[in-house]
């Protein structure tokens, strides 16, 4: 007995059961023996997976069950749900898959909370592979954001974030922002990060992008990730036509509220850089704003003195004050005073800055203007966000988790690595003009230079023809740096699409993922996808690396999480 | 690095717990091998998690890498742990069927019935589920099997004289 003989028999049994085999003692609320139906569907799912012929035999039956099952009670819905799971897992025809997604969409409108829950969870699983079908149900999903039950709204959030694309980004961001205002506190961080990520990927205009980030920072500033500040300053710096607009918006926001640290940091930076535009330039896009020099200085001093300001924020404010000494027209007595006062500040970082700036005023006054010139735009070092589907997803979501999450915890966090703490990529240090100019920024490090003693390559993953290899380089000039090149090669006959590789390291390491060369690994050993990882290991601790892969292959969406073993000692010693 | 996913155990349902609102365990059925210490730990954590749920929340939650399906009937929580690929909605039906069986057998079952006749509750569960899977889908057949088992037990309990046993009287 093999698969080809068993499947038609099962199909026949289920067909008879559904059409004629009614027996009162076996049925539940009018559905013939739902336990048996579910078990048969489960078995068909396992047999039909990756098996073209069996899947074909089942198509009609699945369509029949999907359309004719009575859904007024839970028993019928349970059978329907199992049918949907089976359709999604086997090699079904496109029409059937759309039918399955529509059933899930109908579930979303059901008054029973449990049914909505399973619908959201399942839609999250198929959103990558059947994106357009799920898009049709976007309005319903967005409605589910308003659910009072936290686990449902969490899933709705993951799914909504997965559904954002370039055509619906404005509407979706609006919905997500109103959700952000009222959502439970544990979802705030994920929502904020999700909105920022979506904005980054699909922003229609720069101005909209800046506005969106501004709004998120104002609403949920304390919950955003560390690199949001760096990203925003980068973004503003790059949009020359929007300098005046940005600095005015930020000034107004700062004048209202100095407690949200990321907002304060960006605003201080902007005011420092573009203070002249704030006072002189006219901007049609905002309301006319009359600002006096003294007001600006007073605001920055307020930030400096406020007990709500973090040390980093105060550093931003001090430097901004210093930059204004060349941008403003009045004499600089007030600024000099502040700077000399902070020369004896207890915070070492502030003290150092103040002392140096003091020196700029006194001995090096002739160099001051040149040093405090406007910053040239620094190229992005490829700091990438590490999120799940869901997150997972987020993450998942995606998310793991998410989904992974999720898992999804698991929402947009990457996996908890190893010691239970995640080594997320550290942001590049704030872009400040430092008058010593000797600090080595992560971005300044040379790219792959001549390799010294070569470390052997490592094959870390293999599944159905997709292979992942790691090659290592320790550039000679920087002993703490390790560069890893991840190469994905596909020897099977089907392309691998939507390939995403994420990595996590223990907390004492710093990890930077550069953008991959692509997200499709062509079949038959075509051009491999490569991605560069930069790992800083100042403490020379033993390297541990966990990788998470998500991709589509043979019509299935695959997620693999594994730790890389057998890392050669030369990678970290 | 691990290239192949870990093979999963075959049980659909990993375990079922029944506990009261005060957190007292009334019934525990395990379909996966675990040490006593682990069972106690799982029970303690899960009971805490489920009792903390508000009444309006949905019947499913994710806990460790399992899905938990729970439903409250009067003063008892029926709680099942299933795996990632299992169907939550049918698990709700399984729980409901078990409650119906108990109800039919005890006649309007309440927590006291289960406390004082816990071995019967286990017998009924074992007739309905085997290894975590449904083995008998007919309510009538399960109850009939229990009835017959009861009869055997009664026969064994009534004392018979030696002569009766060899058939001489």
TrEMBL record, chain A:
InterPro entries linked to this entry: Adaptor_Complx_Large_Subunit, ARM-like, ARM-type_fold, Clathrin/coatomer_adapt-like_N, Clathrin_a/b/g-adaptin_app_Ig, Clathrin_app_Ig-like_sf, GAE_dom
Keywords: Golgi apparatus, Membrane, Protein transport, Signal, Transport
Domain GAE: 453-568
PROSITE patterns in the cross-refs: GAE
Main location: membrane
Keyword ATP-binding: no
Annotated SUPFAM superfamilies: ARM repeat (SSF48371), Clathrin adaptor appendage domain (SSF49348)
A single cellular component GO annotation: Golgi apparatus
Record's bilayer topology term: Peripheral membrane protein
Region spans: Disordered: 381-402
Biological processes annotated in GO: intracellular protein transport; vesicle-mediated transport
Signal peptide: 1-23
Location relative to the cell: Endomembrane system; Golgi apparatus
PANTHER family per the UniProt record, alphabetical: ADAPTIN, ALPHA/GAMMA/EPSILON
Family in the record: Belongs to the adaptor complexes large subunit family.
Protein's name in the database: AP-1 complex subunit gamma-like 2 isoform X4
Organism: Mustela putorius furo
TrEMBL record, chain B:
GO BP, sorted A to Z: intracellular protein transport
Main location: membrane
Topology term for the membrane: Peripheral membrane protein
Compartments reported by the entry: Cytoplasmic vesicle membrane; Golgi apparatus; Membrane, Clathrin-coated pit
Residue ranges occupied by any AP complex mu/sigma subunit domain in the UniProt entry: 13-152
One Gene Ontology cellular component annotation held by this UniProt entry: AP-1 adaptor complex
Molecular function GO labels: clathrin adaptor activity
Domain of life: Eukaryota
Keywords: Coated pit, Cytoplasmic vesicle, Golgi apparatus, Membrane, Protein transport, Transport
The keyword Transmembrane belongs to this UniProt entry's keyword annotation: no
Similarity comment: family membership: Belongs to the adaptor complexes small subunit family.
Function: Subunit of clathrin-associated adaptor protein complex 1 that plays a role in protein sorting in the late-Golgi/trans-Golgi network (TGN) and/or endosomes. The AP complexes mediate both the recruitment of clathrin to membranes and the recognition of sorting signals within the cytosolic tails of transmembrane cargo molecules.
Subunit structure: Adaptor protein complex 1 (AP-1) is a heterotetramer composed of two large adaptins (gamma-type subunit AP1G1 and beta-type subunit AP1B1), a medium adaptin (mu-type subunit AP1M1 or AP1M2) and a small adaptin (sigma-type subunit AP1S1 or AP1S2 or AP1S3). Binds to MUC1.
Protein name: AP complex subunit sigma
Species annotation: Mustela putorius furo
